[in-house]
Amino acid sequence: MRTKIAAAILLAVCASGAGAADWTIDPKISLLGESDDNHRLNPVAGEEISVTGFELDAQLSMRARTPRSDFLLVPRARVAVYPDEEDDDTEDGFLLMNWEYRGEKSVGIVNVDYAHRTVLGRFIPDSDGGGLGEPGQGSGTGITTDPTDQDDLQFRPSFTYDLTERTALVLRLGYQDVAFDEQVLDDREDFTAESAEVGVQFRTSPTARLTVRGGASRYEPEDEFVTDSHFVHVEWFNDISEVSRVFLRGGARRAKNEGAIDPDWKNGFSGGAGVQWAFEVTDLFLELNHYLDPSSTGQMVNRDQLRFRLVRRFSDRTRLRLGVRAVRDEDIDEGVDFDTRKYLASTIAYEWRFTRQFSMAVGYDYTWRDIEDDPSSAESNRVFAGVTYEPNRR
Question: Would 266 be classed as within a structural domain?
Fold first, then answer.
């Protein structure tokens, strides 16, 4: 059903806006070898599963542009094979679609993101969010180590209409549907999440905008203990250049969990701050957010998330890439039985482009997770080396 819904949306958008478009097609294929000393992030000493094998990752970016529209479709497949641990083999598929239409006074955007992936006892790496101010949603720091398949469909349309030269009306909707082949109570539960927002945007300068926004959401996990929430916040963005931006966000929210001992509304704060900056030889991305997030644990959670990326270019062909992601999930209501979960993922990689079409990378990943009241935490060390081919790279 989820695949059919995503396909129907994609076909409708394709038919409506891509007829006389200027198309570009960019394939990308990566092959890497890897070794991980605790692939399922098992916290019990002596029960870690170490794997050595290879991963093939292929995607096809198809973009169509017209004077008023921009359409992007990216199908992607990723296969990991471990000869000595076949139960840990994975076959993942992804489909990303973004469509934007610009009228004289309006901008309409439709985002569809579908993923079918094998889930192990670790955070899903593909759910770390998007650009600045978009930390991602609907993931959980899972602890069950048995593999299972997950389907995740996200549909996010938005609409902006200019009321005057400096003010605009902003509307956003969100829908997410997550399902597992095998559910696990309090860890891997099917859920849906819907949200609606309305706001007014003020252009305070040629590059800066201030938005006052309010909205509501509903989270429905498999156990049917619904969580409703409302929020209002103020958000400031400054697009200093095409590659340099800063943002600030702050506001209030309230939430009510029907499964809590005291199912009354609970108030709290949500907000964030971040910067994306391009220097002469260094690119920096740093962001911290505190927000409500639907989770596959069966609970809406309070999430603190730090994202950090640093790219240092030593030459036109070589660069060093650093990345850190830290997550802390806790309950939104003391009357709900939820153990605080902490997660840290970090990577360092050296990349060398030895021709226009081919590049190689070697690197190291460290992952750590801790669950409140568990006797020990879990960690893994992964090393990798691989080659990427981009035939149409300019």
Answer: yes
Q: Burial of 41 by CB count in 10 Å (0-12 exposed, 13-18 middle, 19+ buried)?
A: buried
| Statement: residue 60 has pLDDT above 60 | yes
> What sign has the CA pseudo-torsion 5, 8, 13, 16?
negative
Instruction: Write out the two tokens for 131.
Output: 């650009």
Q: How many domains does the chain have?
A: 1
pLDDT value at 217 more than 70: yes
Would 185 be classed as within a structural domain?
A: yes
Mean pLDDT check: name the lowest of 36-50, 66-80, 137-151.
137-151
Two tokens, residue 96 = 């990303």
Identify whether 122 is part of a domain.
Answer: yes
Domain containing residue 321 = 23-53+118-389
pLDDT for 323 beyond 90: yes
Q: 234-290: per-residue pLDDT in tens?
A: 999 999 988 899 999 999 999 988 877 777 888 899 999 999 999 989 999 999 999
Closest listed residue to residue 387, CA positions, set 355, 348, 365, 364 = 355
Model pLDDT, residue 7: 52
Phi-psi domain of 352 (left: phi exceeds 0; alpha: psi -120 through 50; beta: other): beta
Task: Assess if residue 368 is contained within a domain.
Answer: yes
pLDDT of residue 17: 52
Instruction: Say how far residue 78 (Cα) sits from the centre of its chain.
Output: 17
